[in-house]
Fold:
Amino acid sequence: MGHPIEKEFEEGAMSKEIEVTWLGHSTFRIEAAGKTILIDPWVMGNPMCPDNQKKFDKIDVMLCTHGNGDHIGDAVALCKRHQPKVIGIFELCMWLGKKGAKNTSPMNKGGTQTVEGLRVTMVHADHSCGIQEDDGSIIYGGEAVGYVIEFPGGLKLYHAGDTNVFGDMHIIRELYAPEVAMLPIGDHFTMGPREAAYACQLLRPKVVIPMHFGTFPMLTGRPKDLEKVAEDLGIHVMEMKPGERKPLSVAQFAPVAKVS
Ligand code: MN
Structure:
């Protein structure tokens, strides 16, 4: 807190438009334009998720990056309770539908669909996507993905899912230019801070929100490990605490008038 960009989020005229709450690991609840969006629904078994954040008033849209349990652990239960529109890659949506999710909206990489006023583009991720069944067997879940979400008002947020850095992050920057990037930094199962710093160079967002760290002892990367490289690039590392809610201002990202 105290960084100018976060101050402007808080003081900006439109700062209440988008509110992000980190539920730990890769799970985020986002409130925007009256809708509640949940990315990677893992709450009940998520050791980072505070108890008072495990219940939801409503979920309008659910986005799933891939089929590993630490990302879709509560997808089926929350779908049955709240009936959200569920976005995922085709095979994962078929599986969720078979388990009882009613409103799946399957897609694949490179595609964009508009759901509840959000423009959602599915992008590549470099990771595995097996789904573990109750008996422990692993079944094919399609491929791991990330999302670029464009909110009403124009703010673009990239949730990378679980991934290593990959060169096509440059394409994500050139095509979508997300202002905010949620990047895994924990290491071991995803990229660590070294790779995430390289991802910052490729993506050049204004703000990075680190995720997928600290949940388990082996996820050793920390936001401070990323800070120097990011700040040298003019990127603010916005560290969140589990359960913490922060505004993202659309006004903050309005084009700046050129001084000639
Ligand atoms: Mn994971």
About this structure: The first helix runs from residue 4 to 11. Residues 254-260 have pLDDT under 50 and may be disordered. The radius of gyration is 17 Å. The pocket of manganese (II) ion is lined by residues 68, 70-71, 162, 189, 212 (CB under 6 Å).
